[in-house]
Amino acid sequence: MNFNDFNWHDAIIKNILIDRRSPGILDEIVFDIEWTEEKGKVKFIFKDIYWANMNLNFGIVADETILNAFSMNDNDEDLIAFYSKWKGMMNVVNLNSYIINLNSTGGKIKIIAKGFKVIEI
What we know:
Blueprint: E1 12-22, E2 26-34, E3 41-55, E4 64-72, H1 77-85, E5 96-102, E6 108-120
Antiparallel strand pairs: 1-2, 1-4, 2-3, 3-6, 4-5, 5-6
């Protein structure tokens, strides 16, 4: 399934796990997400991550819900900067930029990775 095909609006992020037990070999971020529809709960796993930035709010008593989410590839400024920083050494790696905008003020998660998988729980 394509990242942009999910109905992200108001899905709830219940947990975020950054897995770097084997840096460079296993770099994953796992989100436990509860969908507002009948879809239930899933583990949304970003695989083969090369860069991540999380602007999260804490100290607020409320569920962290998603406003919208989408993926980009060629036109994303952070992805372009990533390739530029590595001066051609990463040009053979096909990466996508995943952007998750949160309903909390200014909350945003951005991940550059090879892909993702979804596991129903």
